[in-house]
Amino acid sequence: MYKKIYLDAPNVGTLEKELLSKTIDSGYVSTVGPYVPELERRIAKYLDVKKAVSTQSGTAAIHMALHELGVGGGDEVIVPALTFVATVNPVVYVGATPVFADVNIDTWNIDPGNIEKVITKKTKAIIPVHLYGNPCNMDAIMRIAGKYGLYVIEDATESLGAKYKDKHTGTFGDFGCFSFNGNKIITTGGGGMITGNNGRKISHVKMLVNQARDEGKEYYHPEVGFNYRMTNIEASLGLGQMEKLDDFLAKKKKFNTIYREELKDMEFVRFQQECGDGESSWWLSCVVFGKGIDIAGLQEKLKEKGIPTRRVFPPVVEFPPYRSHKHAGYENSYHIYEGALCLPSSTLNSADDIHYVCEKMKGSFR
Question: In whole angstroms, what is the distance from residue 64 CA to residue 55 CA?
């Protein structure tokens, strides 16, 4: 019987149970209650931004950012080819067209040079993704955005706690979007957050996510709004998780260090690399193997030893809704997808568990 190893499972405990119990006892289990505004304040303070607005998901946060910036029909939005599909779907929700750019072979993040290659007169915004918690080259991206007058919406859904030049991801662009799904660094079960420093715009988003309700009048809705509110139950869970965030980040960094040290002599293994000024949250520790490695076979061998792994995201242009965008310009995205694995990174694991994973991985290649 092998020990239990966790890929990306949430780490919740007594504190979260206490807060959930208090919420249930209070009767404020839905979208009204004290914990939602408190979590928004905590996130804004942690990130050092003017305001944060909770949403029902990271996807909803990206949708709201695009909507608030007026992105719509006839506009183009540049996105990385290698990302989770939730980065791209909201572009379609607002009627705009996603335009894909290849990623950097080392960082796995959108390549600023490739961004500039696909800019047209229709380009309205860029959505850089801090993939698996690894910060993008935000200086270069913001320079390009300034040069062409483009909005920047940071998909920081996987990178809470990551920094670029000592500044948190999700705080460089017009908006930052975070996810608190069950497998993220902290969780609210579902849920997300949109952050920004434009007080007027972020306050307008706050109204829109609540069905565009005018709080000054009873059930008056001056605009078409969205039901994207976080519940008090979810927020209470998030507040408990925020107490543990620093510990979670330290543990993930330690796990990544162990993986690098243990596997450094395997010449056919390359890790996702931080850009020079980036500090990853290491939401997931990921590696790419050299040619000739049977990825599916390796996964099966590890699974037999109780070790879960996950393929990296397929390039979005592989999916039917986006296949018409497919062309010969995403070599790095395909190279990474075809040879990479996400390794156990849940903070439920111990350092000994990560050493065990490394031992079994090395044994699989002997």
Answer: 9
Domains of the chain: 14-242 (3.40.640.10), 245-365 (3.90.1150.10)
Of 229, 280, 231, 235, residue with least CA distance to 255: 280
- Which three-class secondary structure state does DSSP give residue 304? helix
Q: Tell me, yes or no, if the pTM score tops 0.85.
A: yes
Residues annotated as catalytic (active site), given as ranges: 184
Q: Which residues pair with 76 in a beta bridge?
A: 97, 123
Residue 92 burial (10 A CB sphere; 0-12, 13-18, 19+): middle
The crossing angle, in degrees rounded to 10, of helices 14-26 and 232-242 is 150
pLDDT tens for each residue of 100-128: 999 999 999 999 999 999 999 999 999 99
What is the C-alpha separation between 94 and 46, in angstroms, rounded?
A: 30
Q: How many residues does the chain have?
A: 366
